[in-house]
Write a structure and sequence with these properties.
With about 425 residues, the chain is of the alpha/beta class. Helices cover about 45% and strands about 15% of the residues. It starts with a helix and ends in a 5-residue tail after the last helix.
């Protein structure tokens, strides 16, 4: 007892006489409130990035819509409706009464959600029914549903390919394909956009790979280009490769019966696998899928991480999608109307001297402007004339390639398209874009 008291006393005397060390400077602590102190490196970096975008004219703000998605919409703080020229609502089904009723009915019979992933307790009869309808539509063996096509693409390459394999990807593929490829350990090759000479060069460079997978969008959403799938499939056959196609901006309206780019190019039996979405032409809600050989789909069900670790698709979306596939499988009237609207708009805009890119058959109609600030200001002035469009600039598109990407819908009337064209002409002349 006396020993412990003596030692404590000795230690206390040492603390009293020893020089005290200066406290180490504290690092600024990150908080979810995003402190703006100059010594907070994360805040400094984030605020700097935002300021750079604002100075470059590339900072994006979101307009708020207070109506359903349709050809004419209501925007917050505006009394009059505006014509929507930038939705993926190609067939005009986003607010279709029959689909809304089917969604409500599915909630009555199958609930709001499953609170589960598919393999635990998240598969209902309607999910299997929808997968069968999609397979029949694309003339494939089987289909797997995902929360989105982004998830479908993210879950494909990592599951199917390894370091012994190679992916040969178009340089302008969608971000979801790019991210999916990054998750995979396969060798990566990139060919110039829709350039078959470049594709063949890369196929030759990848000749020693066990599996060679060519990946491409069917329709490129920023440029309105349609992939030459017939030529791609011919090169794939020549070099022993497989073809993967993302059909998000094609399913339901590209091709004579809306079965997409493979139908348009006559290669439905030559494409290995298709990914697509329920969130654009097919009702505009959410959801995606991969369709192809049954054994490949079975592998995805067992190993694809976005499928295994994401909640199942909501019954209301499934119920509406069942009706969509019934309609587009039997009737091409909406697809035909979209084709006519696309032809009119493209020819009218080109006739006034606008630089229009993309395939003549594609309802994605980019109006090329070049400068990011010009694109943003152009879009704002179009809104003042009752036309809802958005300027696209870097990093969504390459620097110097800013544009207003218009998208035509079967729901647009001829009068609405005429108004849009005349508004483009007025703003284009005022800003010196056209004579």
């Amino acid at each position: 007892q006396d020993y412990r008291i003596a030692m404590r006393s000795f230690a206390l005397r040492l603390r009293l006489v020893a020089p005290r060390r200066a406290p180490a400077p504290r690092l600024a602590r990150f908080s979810t409130a995003m402190k703006t102190s100059s010594i907070d490196p994360l805040s400094a970096k984030v605020l700097g990035d935002i300021q750079d975008m604002k100075e470059a004219g590339t900072f994006k703000t979101e307009r708020v819509i207070i109506s359903p998605q349709r050809a004419k919409i209501t925007v917050e703080n505006r009394k009059e409706e505006v014509i929507n020229m930038c939705a993926n609502n190609y067939l005009g089904l986003s607010s279709d009464p029959e689909l809304i009723e089917a969604a409500k009915k599915a909630m009555d019979t199958h609930g709001l959600g499953l609170s589960s992933v598919r393999f635990i307790c998240g598969t209902q009869d309607i999910h299997k029914e929808l997968e069968e309808k999609i397979s029949k539509f694309h003339q494939t063996e089987d289909t797997i549903l995902y929360p989105s096509c982004f998830d479908a693409n993210a879950g494909f390459f990592e599951t199917v390919l390894t370091k012994e394999d190679a992916i040969i990807s178009d340089s302008l593929n969608h971000a979801s394909i790019i991210d999916g490829v990054r998750l995979c350990k396969a060798a990566r090759f990139r060919y110039d956009h829709m350039c078959m000479d470049s594709l063949e060069e890369n196929l030759i460079a990848a000749k020693d790979a066990r599996i060679k997978m060519i990946a491409t969008d069917g329709v490129f959403s920023m440029d309105g280009d349609i992939a030459p799938l017939d030529e791609i499939c011919a090169l794939a056959e020549k070099h022993g490769a497989y073809v993967f196609v993302d059909e998000c901006h094609a399913t339901g309206f590209i091709g004579p019966t809306g079965r997409g780019t493979p139908e348009l190019k006559g290669v439905m039996d030559k494409v290995l696998v298709i990914t697509s979405t329920l969130g654009k032409a097919l009702g505009g809600a959410t959801g995606g899928y991969t369709t192809g050989p049954s054994q490949l789909i079975s592998l995805l069900r067992n190993k694809s991480r976005p499928y295994l670790f994401s909640n199942t698709l909501a019954p209301c979306v499934v119920g509406a999608s069942l009706v969509v596939f019934d309609r587009i499988s039997k009737d091409t009237s909406l697809r035909d109307k979209l084709e006519a609207n696309t032809t009119y708009f493209r020819e009218a805009m080109s006739g006034y001297g606008f630089e229009i890119s993309g395939d003549p058959a594609c309802p994605i109609v980019p109006v090329m402007l070049g400068d990011a600030r010009l694109a943003a200001e152009f879009a704002d002035e179009m809104l003042e004339r009752g036309i809802y469009v958005i300027g696209f600039s870097y990093p969504v598109v390459p620097k110097g390639k800013a544009r207003i990407r218009t998208q035509i819908s079967a729901a647009h009337s001829e009068e609405q398209l005429q108004h849009a064209v005349q508004s483009f002409v007025e703003v284009g002349r005022a800003k010196g874009v056209i004579a």
